[in-house]
Amino acid sequence: MASLLRAPTAQASQALRHRLASTPSVLLISQQRWASSTGTSPDIKQPPEAGAQGPAKLPWPQYFKIRKNKRNWEVAATIPSSLLSFAGAISYFSSLETTGPIFGADPMFVYAAGSVACMGLGSLLGPIIGGSIWRASHRKSLALIEEREREFYNHIIKNRVDPSRQSPVNPVPDYYGEKIGSLAQYRQWLRDQARFRRKATLPEE
């Protein structure tokens, strides 16, 4: 019993300290073996996902293609909107019963003018309706499209000419850039702007 309560010798203490010092190494080796088997390292952070480094941008060729598609939607919606407005106006005016002139004019002329005005209003509402339908169908990528849209119009505003310098022989070439549908057409638009500036700065003969 006395031998069990005896203080440990220096050799036993040194062996115990050596065993404790080697324990972290054993744990580290086990951790490295586990990492190599799973293909990951617990001490190294995983790279960020694609898109975490910055928002993706829509390629210019794809943007021009989408822009042309939007324009087609607006034009396509203009035709039925105009026809429906015109037909609705004719149906409404034909149901009215008048016994005298309207504003001093024959009612038929007034009704005809009102029907044409309604048709013009429908042609103005058509692009709005078509654009709204197009936006609803491209809701997922709308943020990227609008970002490119702002960047494109910034380029247009920066590079377009001063319309106050136009003349009958030198009109402004596509001031709003509505005819641009590709990168090649954009480069041609830039050349047209430069040609306009050269003609505007030449002294008149």
Helices and strands in order:
Elements: H1 10-38, H2 60-94, H3 107-137, H4 142-159, H5 183-201
Provide a concise account of the structure shown.
The protein has 205 residues and is mainly alpha-helical. 64% of the residues lie in helices and 0% in strands.
Helix fraction by DSSP (H/I, runs of at least 4): 55-70%
Q: Overall 3D geometry?
A: flat
Tell me what portion of residues adopts beta-strand conformation: under 5%
Derived from helix and strand composition plus strand pairing, the structural class reads mainly alpha
Number of helices: 5
Mean pLDDT: 78
Let me know the largest β-sheet. Answer: none
Helix-strand sequence? HHHHH
Low-confidence stretches: 1-5, 23-31, 34-53
From the N-terminal CA to the C-terminal CA, the straight-line distance is 127 Å
Overall strand count? 0
**CA-atom Rg in angstroms:** 38 Å
